[in-house]
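Notes from hallway chat w/ T.B., transcribed later so I don't forget. T.B. wanted the structure written out for a chain they're using in a teaching module, and asked if we could keep both sequence and structure tokens in one place. Agreed to drop them here.
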Amino acid sequence: MMINVQDPMIDIMQKARKGDELNRDEIAYMYNEVDIKKLGYVARILTDHITGRQVSFVSNMILNYTNICNVRCNFCAFYRTGKEDDSYTMTADQVVERLKQFDSLYGIKQLLIQGGVNPDLPLEYYTDMFRKIKENVPGVGINGLSTSEISFIARKEKTSVKDVLISLRESGLETIPGAGAEIFSSDVRKVLGRPLNSGQQWLDVMETAHSLGIRTSATMMFGHVENAYHRADHLLALLKLQKKYNGFLSFTPWNFEPGNTKLEKEGLVTRRVGGEEVLRNIAISRIVLNQRLPIIQSSWLTNGVEMGQMSIYFGANDWGGTIYDEKVIPATGKMVGNLRKETIIRALKGIGMFPVERDNRYQIIKSYV
């Protein structure tokens, strides 16, 4: 006699359509067992209910103001100790001059500012920089600093993260990027060369920011030494905080680039994950976060324009931004180049989507339908 065992993905799909929260076993099952096409189908249905065929992007510039860092992660090829000839730290005036050059050409709406945890920089360095940016280019939204940078500033100044965030906001900070999340598991972070409590620290800084009304982004770096349950726990931790304050604006899963990193040199990660794994993470992110965190960014930066297009089919609804002057990814040996908004618009229209330009707060400012 035939026994009809229902596919667990049917129950997962039904829960997702109702907006019910999935558990870690269900999430791990999607990572380990479910066909990628099925995941993409479910994810795109959910996305169509959230934003339809509209896909947003922002005129963005990444500014890596320093490469000096005392954290020295095993997965980073960008950092310098300060003793190398190519170590650098930009002055506030240099930052403003660089921004003005790109803004005059491209109309920058979002400035992503992050570098390393530079032990020589006081809070005043950042507040002075932010004020000068807003004085000279008032239309740009400052999306600034990682949680590691913010935590270190608080320790250096012998004050609280809350007080640091208030000072940064008063000087022009608008939002905080999601860098540094990686995978929250302490076991994973130990291998990555991160302090064991740094995952919880990331969540704590973000919760403090959200409690102050400062919106932030969230990320997950996959494709190194983590497993499906690590990824599941990461997504559920984000979901828990999102349900408390609704402070995350977007989520971006991005794949680890091993080139020139300590993890590669020690043989712990010998290759980057393939495109299917990238799309799997996009789709599962949509299914898990659903309407609680409605904006999922494509992972085009480390995978190229065509994979950015595929990410939209698998549940992403924000391209991310134009790229000018990014230095962290190229340090791994992978060249990303610059990407102008005309290329993004053409790529989105080419797959039947409706491009809309947004600002740093994800407010739509122009449609290209």
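Follow-up for T.B.: Residues 26-364 form a domain with the TIM Barrel fold (CATH 3.20.20.70). Might be a good example for the class.
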